[in-house]
Automatic annotation (TrEMBL):
Residues 398-408 have a biased composition (Gly residues). Its EC number is 2.8.1.6. Keywords: 2Fe-2S, 4Fe-4S, Biotin biosynthesis, Iron, Iron-sulfur, Metal-binding, S-adenosyl-L-methionine, Transferase. Catalyzes the conversion of dethiobiotin (DTB) to biotin by the insertion of a sulfur atom into dethiobiotin via a radical-based mechanism. The gene is bioB. This is Biotin synthase. Residues 47-277 form the Radical SAM core domain. HAMAP family: BioB. Residues 389-433 are annotated as: Disordered. NCBIfam families: bioB. SMART domains: BATS, Elp3.
Amino acid sequence: MDLLDTLTAKGLNRELPTREEALAVLATTDDELLDVVAAAGRVRRQWFGRRVKLNYLVNLKSGLCPEDCSYCSQRLGSKAEILKYTWLKPGEAAEAATAGVKGGAKRVCLVASGRGPTDRDIDRVAGTIAAIKEQEPAVEICACLGLLSDNQAERLRAAGADAYNHNLNTSEGTYGDITTTHTYADRVDTVSKAHGAGLSACSGLIAGMGESDEDLVDVVFALRELGSDSVPVNFLIPFEGTPLAKEWNLTPQRCLRILAMVRFVNPDVEVRIAGGREVHLRSMQPLGLHIANSIFLGDYLTSEGQAGQADLDMIKDAGFEVEGQGEATLPRHRAELGSACGGHDTAGADGGNGGGCGTGGGGCGSGRAPAAEAGCGGHGTDGCGPCGEPGDEATGGEVAGGGAVAGGGDEEARTDLVRVRRRGAGTELAPNA
Ligand code: SF4
């Protein structure tokens, strides 16, 4: 079809599609779906080959958040029966991180619930980063701690963080419908702070909250404009006990179309399938690997994923390979944070940036968007997000203002696939990795 030929050509040349073309991807039929996946797959292979980057989540502080993000199981008023605990000790976090790295993860994502860190929290996280790097010097570390105040990003960078995650989650126009305690602009500001400090920006979205196709295209174009190095795509997990518990809006086919649209708009950026992968893509997960080049290994923040070994088996069976510590994630033309700005000497070509970040490439500046463009925001979904997992995220409490976020799902509710995390960080049981 002409549309897919056009989008493939643009993706191979790193040209931005039009909004109409992006919307047309979301409007394709099931009969066209494999052609859509194949076209996005060509773009994915051009920039990322058959590599799959594995990321591993460590939830440093779970639940009890004062913010009201309606998708989040950790939010104020959430009735979801998630694990609730305060800051893990550096040794506990390092133990969990090491399990993920041994399982194949190249990046560890350190997440804490809350509006944002205090300066003392930054000290805690710095100690945790040091403990992890002592055991795993080459691992990339992404922090996800919420809204940043002045100079906190610089301190995280100096402590050895390679990236910072803060998701935009949804369009600017609908942001106020999902959260009232902070704004879309707050999120953009935090991403800008992280970017300006030389941290690789990781910022993504949550699909399935009742948003329109136009909202999805808006947020994905905004992420491209912000210069996010990695874009986690979360699929809402409608947790019981959260305001969005009834929002079962996604099918595997819909998820694949969303991933393809994200890939066409961000052809040379790490696209990560984040929370909700198992719940919504289900047996179609391997097709998602033809579009995205990154996933989380094992469990999410407050929900459980499939077994880590099942992730590895899936990658191998689908004909892909796990990206190694010494391999660059992003194509050469994109600037690598690590080398670029500042001085982080992380290991390997990818160096610190990893996922989101960079790869080996070149120095500063190059492919990255100016700091001012970056921005993003927030805590949020699962994967990366600091907070919430998609899965959990679904949780939330009352939707802002009465909540009209979603329209009430009309797809089959697969509550049987939603499992609250009961192992790994914050428990006596071994992590899933
Ligand atoms: S997404 Fe982050 S800020 Fe929002 S409620 Fe969840 S933990 Fe709190």
